[in-house]
């Protein structure tokens, strides 16, 4: 269905999409997958779960019952309509949870998204950034080149990371909020000119090929913001972590060789820590020091070293917990202690790669190449219970964003709006209750064995 302004297809399920030839091992499933991803992740064997002190209660001891099979939302939603689910017998409050809408736009796979209030920003491999308001197309703008791999929102400003190694800054017109214009890029052209004069500002990336240290020379895969300090972090396939000052687009610091392979995720965390995850199978913790002329980040912990690529990170600031998704489908997590971060356990809800993660309140969301989203709730003592598995996408999940549903939330039960972007070219919108029944409670209620 198209709205009156044209071009926007809302509540429509996309079918008949074409597959790409170079799927890669991340998306291996029991049957040939329908979608591919251009990301150069490496398929490695993981030993992270072998030393875990405890693990999620989401699967049965014999391993025969998965969260997916017990999910109350394990069904294909009907096309064209908002979908509401019948209330649970014990709690009518959960009757409005589940899939509440979809956005389909025939222009490319969804690689990135960000939400702010009633606004949603989506990035695709068509170089377009679309702006949606209340699930209707509101505006859009386009970069000259580069698939949109990351989006960050700061007030009326939008920062985007691209496949061409550039970070662009956009701003809505004060007179017409539907018009977005680029007002800068990282690094600023003046800083590029100034740095290019001195040979010491160049770094050799391959034989007889040098580039400016303050510029990324490969895809910008991830962005993270520290609003308090006015800093933007960028991770890249060029293996570097860069720190930018937002006010003047200046590169404050470049950590060359932060990892031995592509950086897939960067997060500004808690207690002055910044976290990075890489295709080299490691997760690293960096401590930020503010200096007179810039910043200094020092690695304080290597939290994980495994053969499988690290594909996604998420931080819960309510519990000071770091979550890490990998190409083997596992989610490791670490808890903040007086002695640093300690490994807390492993969540097992997917059998193939976890490609995106998000947190909200007590909830943790993991999106996977298996086309589903596992919803976990952190309980007392660091135990995590799987509340549900959200299904309906027909391609791997690539990105997630979460906003609180202030209209539906109560003092005793916060509700969250979850946006999921997929390689099936759609964005789906879900409502999730923080105090919904766990999978085990659903199993007991409906006598599932």
TrEMBL record:
Region (Disordered), start-end ranges: 1-66
Keywords: Repeat, WD repeat
Biased composition (Polar residues): 46-61
CDD domains: WD40
InterPro entries with a match to the protein in the record: JINGUBANG-like (IPR045182), WD40/YVTN_repeat-like_dom_sf (IPR015943), WD40_PAC1 (IPR020472), WD40_repeat_dom_sf (IPR036322), WD40_rpt (IPR001680)
Ranges in coiled-coil conformation: none
WD repeat segments: 213-254, 303-335, 347-376
Pfam families in the cross-refs: WD40
Stated name of the protein: Myosin heavy chain kinase B-like
């Amino acid at each position: 269905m198209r709205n009156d302004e044209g071009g926007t297809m809302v509540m429509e399920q996309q079918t008949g999409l074409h597959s790409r030839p170079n799927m890669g091992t991340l998306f291996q499933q029991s049957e040939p997958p329908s979608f591919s991803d251009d990301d150069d992740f490496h398929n490695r064997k993981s030993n992270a779960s072998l030393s875990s002190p405890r693990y999620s209660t989401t699967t049965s001891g014999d391993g025969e019952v998965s969260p997916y099979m017990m999910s109350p939302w394990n069904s294909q939603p009907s096309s064209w309509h908002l979908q509401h689910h019948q209330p649970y017998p014990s709690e009518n409050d959960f009757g409005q949870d589940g899939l509440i809408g979809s956005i389909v736009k025939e222009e490319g796979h969804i690689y990135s998204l960000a939400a702010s209030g009633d606004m949603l920003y989506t990035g695709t491999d068509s170089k377009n950034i679309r702006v949606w308001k209340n699930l209707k197309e509101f505006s859009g703008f386009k970069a000259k080149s580069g698939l949109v791999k990351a989006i960050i929102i700061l007030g009326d400003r939008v920062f985007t990371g691209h496949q061409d190694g550039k970070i662009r800054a956009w701003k809505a017109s004060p007179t017409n909020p539907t018009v977005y214009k680029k007002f800068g890029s990282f690094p600023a052209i003046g800083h590029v000119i100034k740095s290019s004069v001195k040979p010491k500002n160049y770094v050799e990336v391959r034989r007889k090929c040098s580039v400016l240290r303050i510029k990324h020379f490969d895809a910008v895969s991830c962005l993270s913001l520290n609003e308090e300090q006015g800093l933007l972090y960028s991770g890249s396939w060029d293996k570097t972590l860069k720190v930018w000052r937002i006010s003047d687009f200046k590169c404050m610091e470049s950590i060359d060789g932060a990892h031995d392979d592509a950086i897939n995720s960067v997060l500004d965390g808690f207690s002055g820590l910044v976290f990075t995850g890489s295709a080299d199978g490691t997760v690293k913790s960096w401590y930020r020091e503010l200096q007179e002329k810039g910043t200094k980040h020092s690695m304080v912990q290597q939290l994980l070293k495994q053969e499988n690529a690290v594909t996604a990170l998420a931080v819960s600031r309510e519990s000071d917990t770091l979550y890490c998704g990998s190409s083997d489908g596992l989610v490791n997590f670490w808890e903040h202690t007086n002695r640093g971060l300690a490994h807390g356990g492993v969540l097992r809800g997917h059998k193939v790669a976890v490609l995106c993660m998000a947190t909200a309140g007590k909830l943790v969301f993991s999106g996977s190449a298996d086309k589903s989203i596992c919803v976990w709730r952190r309980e007392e003592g660091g135990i995590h219970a799987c509340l549900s598995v959200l299904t309906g996408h027909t391609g791997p999940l690539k990105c997630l964003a979460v906003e609180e549903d202030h209209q539906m939330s109560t003092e005793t039960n916060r509700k969250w709006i979850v946006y999921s972007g997929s390689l099936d070219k759609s964005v789906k919108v879900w409502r999730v209750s923080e105090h919904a029944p766990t999978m085990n409670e659903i199993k007991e209620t409906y006598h599932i064995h």
